[in-house]
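Many introductory courses stop at the sequence. We go one step further.
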Amino acid sequence: MKFHSLSFVFLALLATSAQAFDLGGFRNQLGNLGRAGAQNMTPANTAHPSALSSFSNKEQVGSLKQALTQSAETAVASLARENGFLGNDKVRIPLPDSLQKAAGLMRSVGMGKYADDLTTSMNRAAEAAVPEAKTLLVAAVKDMSVSDARSILLGDNDAATQYFRKNTETALSAKFKPIVLTAMQKVKLAEQYDQFAGRGVELGLVDQKDANLEDYITRKAMDGLFLMMAEQEKAIRTNPMQAAGSLAQKVFSAIKL
């Protein structure tokens, strides 16, 4: 398909209206709302270090390893299957934003099916790549120190996920990319995407970082994986009895009090 012949025309209409209002009264209302909001706010995690005082270092690390292994395995299992990405609106990988803005025009020139097929293929590639994450995530759990464990246990609802991201993201990217590339070659859409996205870069419609298909899918696949892990972590912190291990249930229950 030839993309160089396409020209993109965008029209924008902006309607504005203004209403008079009492600026002083408006400020007072904002102040009242701010005070009320501050009174109702609760921290993501109110655990105090004393909550861990009854547990040995070994128990603290062991409980966290149970919970994190469960979190990693559950997240990978939910994504590493057909429609794991495509059927989940939270992690479904769309065309880059800049291409989505032009979706209407793409369909008007007969490219609708191409865009849909490409989106499906991108998500299938992510579903094929994500099983590679399990080994690296479990290894990160094994390497965790006592200091890491305490910081995570007493941290925010996604503290463990942030630890995973910091310690595995580079290695995950290297693992994911070749699998993504192989998956895209199977459906023979990578070359077409690169051609289309490259033209989009020239026209200022596509961000340069989104022009390479493997890089884009790899980033989005990791984003989806860490999002699902964060949800699993939050669920365990909210309801420790969801933890698979008895030690994790005991320790997370203690820091929740």
